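#dry-run=false #mode=assembly
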Amino acid sequence: MNARTFQFIPGNNPSMLQSSQLLGADAIIIDLEDSVSIDEKDSARKLVQKHVEELKNKQCMVGVRINPTDSKFWEDDLAITNKLNLDFILVPKASVDSLKQIKTKINKDVDIIVLIESANSLLDIKNILAFDQQIKAALFGAEDYAADMNIVRTSKGNEIEWARNYFVINCVAQNKLAIDTPFTDSDDFEGLRNDTLYVKSIGFKSRSCVNPRHIDTIHEVLNPTLEEYKEAKEIVELNEQFKKEGKGVFSYKGKMVDLPIVKRCLAIIDICETRGLY
Amino acid sequence: MTVTAGTLESNDCLVTIKKASEYKLNLKSIVIKQYGKHIEQLVANWAKNNNLVAEITIDDKGALDKTIIARLETAKQRMETK
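#status=ok
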């Protein structure tokens, strides 16, 4: 799974569903949970079904956040989503127990993204990610995590620093995409840029958003630079040459290059070329 | 018995279905001139295909066909579970 941005779309909002493919996000998460009131779950389900069924020429990945397994809605949600051509299902309040239930009802061909949004789920993230191969990514839900911890969220994010680091380290260790929490101040673009630069520096490659105006800024920050792309290509070419000579390690601009570095360069090239960045 | 589904938000429609002895459509739409006939046909076909004899009222704020159908189907389901 490879996407820089995951944009949340309220599932009971026809206007947003219609325009969702044009927002520029790499993926959209159509929401049946928090943005849909209890009385309108049936309505949202039907609306999402009709809109996704008629989706042609998808411009981005499309997934649905279902309701949690401690609600009475999740099975009806899956009954609908299993019939749709979706790229992923986002499972809220993910735990090993909830995933056991989900696995009994979910389509085997769809990817699962787990939403880590409590102290318990964060501490058990290793087991959650390892639970099943269908799990391809994890999304850190900082707002619900902060509520669980009874702490105040700030734009600086000091209160979630440890949690973010622990989250992304576990994702990387199990080769799952780590998706950071949305930046909730709609108009603070400098704050968004700085916050995204920070999460990039600790290993995140992806971020969720609730405000489509944030997508471009997130992409600008998370995209490899032209210099990084050029350097990656040079390293990969050199690697091919040295491989023919039987060398697995070589020096590039005074630094040692071995297989992990080459893999990182290949990922950079893939991101740049599949997105047509340069 | 009367059930509703949908909203009056932009690109949505508010659908009301009331049990009746014959089919009737009350349509109000912000695009009635351009799409009135089309919506009337869409709803009539849907009602026929679903064997629904009822009085249907739609207050449309520019909903696409798939949105209108989704709201109709939700209203019908709500009627069946009431």
